[in-house]
Amino acid sequence: MTLEQLRIFIAVAEREHVTQAAAYLNLTQSATSAAVAALEERHAVRLFDRVGRRVVLTDAGKLFLSEARAVVARADQANRLLDDLAGMKRGTLRLGASQTIANYWLPPLMQRFREQHPGIALELAVGNSTLVAQMVHDANIDLGFVEGEITDATLNSQNLPGDQLALVVAPGHGWQHCPPSDAQDLKTSPWVMREEGSGTRSACENVLMDQGLSTEDVEVAFELPSNEALCVAVEAGAGAAILSTLVVAPAVKANRLVSVDFKLPQRPFYVLHPKERHLSLAEQRFLDLP
Q1: Which of 143, 119, 90, 94 is nearest to 287 (CA)?
Q2: CA of 154: how far to CAs of 110, 151, 214, 252, 283, in Å?
Q3: How far is CA 252 from the centre of its chain?
Q4: Distance CA 283, CA 290 (A)
Q5: Nearest alpha carbon to residue 11 among 275, 31, 94
Q6: Would the N or C end of the chain have less CB density within 10 A of its end CB?
Q7: What is the C-alpha separation between 153 and 39, in angstroms, rounded?
Q8: Cα 267 from Cα 146, distance rounded (Å)
Q9: Cβ contacts of residue 82 below 8 Å, gap of 6+?
Q10: C-alpha distances in Å from residue 278, one per residue of 41, 120, 136, 142, 273
């Protein structure tokens, strides 16, 4: 059993498709299939069932997946330690971030890190806050940056300076000149929201909760999977939305959106990393960036 075989097994298990796993790993389909077959033959156990064009984990495969991930994570940690000892002359730092952070907050930090440590390659995966936390949990990334609080006993969560939220509507909306002042007012407009699991969605829900409301008490016109889609929907008159000022600033400046006079809290960001391992030198240097 080799680390390469384990990495291939994990990629196939996560994608439930040999061809997609091969493309992700930059391997041929035959090499990918052969690695899985070698594991199964060597240990006389079936790890996958073939269902049409897909493959699905057997019960044995499901048990083995968690062990395979743990072994690969330990090997990656050993590599990071050697990178530390080499003085950060080479290596990879895998980051994950929710959309607002990935698109607006993180890129300047990544550039500053690159200028200081050009030998360390940076990789960035993007997903909503729940998905990013899961990627950290599964050791698919080293550091995860999210907008909402995450409850996972295996992860450390550290507060970071965040962003300011804004309530935005299209020009001509009734709230442009007569902002909402209480819970009843907040019911008078349709709303556009992010999907469940998004930090931006959680922030909107918290604002409604502070007014004694839930999403069931207001009309939700759309649930959309990106901040950009929310902005376009609000610009088209679909309703109101709560978004980061980092996201809406260009549209507000261009008068495509109106920032409503409604007091909203500043929202902290959080960085996540596993409790069971120490921060690598590269991770620590990234978090120490001004």
Answers
A1: 143
A2: 26, 9, 30, 40, 18
A3: 26
A4: 14
A5: 31
A6: C
A7: 32
A8: 11
A9: none
A10: 36, 18, 14, 11, 9
Rounded Cα distance between 114 and 286, Å, is 10
Tokens representing residue 68 in the block: 């395979």
Q: How many residues does the chain have?
A: 290
Q: How far apart are CA 191 and CA 131, in angstroms?
A: 24
Count the alpha carbons within 13 Å of 64 in the hemisphere toward its beta carbon.
22
pLDDT by residue (tens digit) across 29-64? Answer: 999 999 999 999 999 999 999 888 889 999 999 999
Single-letter amino acid, residue 94: R
Pick from 248, 199, 195, 193: nearest CA to 225 = 195
Q: Can you list the positions of beta strands (E) in 183-249?
A: 191-194, 220-224, 241-244
Contact in structure between 190 and 219 (CB atoms under 8 Å):
yes
